[in-house]
Write a structure and sequence with these properties.
- The protein has helices at residues 2-13, 29-33, 41-55, 95-103, 121-133, 153-175, 182-189, 200-214, 230-252; strands spanning 19-22, 61-63, 71-74, 86-91, 108-111, 141-149, 196-198, 218-222.
- By secondary structure, it is of the alpha/beta class.
- Helix 4 (95-103) packs parallel to helix 5.
- The chain is globular.
């Protein structure tokens, strides 16, 4: 399986730190490109996830589904050096996907790209409840949210806003969304919004609050915003690693 060859290479280069998040995503344009019928949307994800879950297990895999040819005594080469590839299920707001992650015994990643993170607490509770009902051990829960860090709150917002606007307009233009406003952006960048934008202390406090609120074991920041210049991205990454992450650990301690 070529996909596992790529994972094995990345796993080796990263010294065992390679991970994958499995999800349907918010972009469905690629379905027709690969010849998939959107009327089988649920069936396709269930089928592919079930196969992937089997491939994560050691030994030859025999599998039969409904959306592709069966697999018989297949062994993946080269093997993952540390024995297993860590895989999460990414969920954007579907209770069915939360339960599915629990059913396959895979950690959960909540994609929170808009609104107050508090509204995702019912999904956390559903996941924990589903794990218990299925006899699965408690598993990690993560959040994936956009963010940008600079020296001050105002600098971070001023650096990000024009590129955020371009990105949302580009996507929204294909989907019929209204143009974003600066007021909406400010709300999302505020204490109750999804965007982790600001100086290190502001972003760290927001992350720590979300971690406590949802009982998380991990918080992933998406740091790329379309046309945002490379030097701004690199400086944001540097601040996340040297300032934000240590401060989050202090706040959580």
């Amino acid at each position: 399986m070529r996909v596992f060859q790529r994972f094995s290479t990345v796993d080796g280069l990263s010294k065992g730190r390679a991970e994958v998040i499995l999800g349907r995503g918010s972009f469905t344009e690629s379905y027709s490109l690969f010849g998939y019928d959107m009327s089988r949307y649920e069936e396709l994800f269930e089928d592919k996830l079930r196969l992937f879950a089997e491939l994560l297990k050691p030994g030859p895999v025999t599998w039969r589904g409904t959306t592709r040819s069966p697999v018989t005594d297949a062994t993946m080469y080269p093997p993952i050096e540390n024995g297993a590839l860590k895989a999460w299920v990414g969920v954007g707001g579907s209770p069915e996907s939360v339960v599915r992650a629990a059913r396959y015994g895979l950690p959960l990643t909540l994609a929170i790209i808009g609104g107050n993170p508090q509204r995702f607490r019912p999904f956390v509770d559903l996941y924990i409840e589903s794990l218990e009902k299925l006899g699965q051990p408690l598993l990690p829960i993560a959040v994936h949210s956009p963010g940008h860090v600079a020296a001050t709150d105002e600098q971070a917002k001023e650096e990000l806003w024009p590129h955020y606007e371009v990105m949302i307009n580009r996507i929204g233009g294909e989907r019929g969304w209204p143009p974003p406003t600066r007021a909406q952006f400010e709300r999302e960048a505020g204490p109750d919004g999804a965007l982790c934008v600001g100086k290190p202390e502001t972003v760290a406090a927001k992350i720590a609050r979300t971690v406590r609120l949802l009982g998380l074991s991990r918080f992933n920041i998406k740091y790329s915003f379309g046309t945002l210049p490379h030097d701004k991205l690199m400086h944001s990454i540097e601040l996340i690693g040297t300032k934000v992450a240590p401060r989050v650990r202090e706040l959580m301690a």
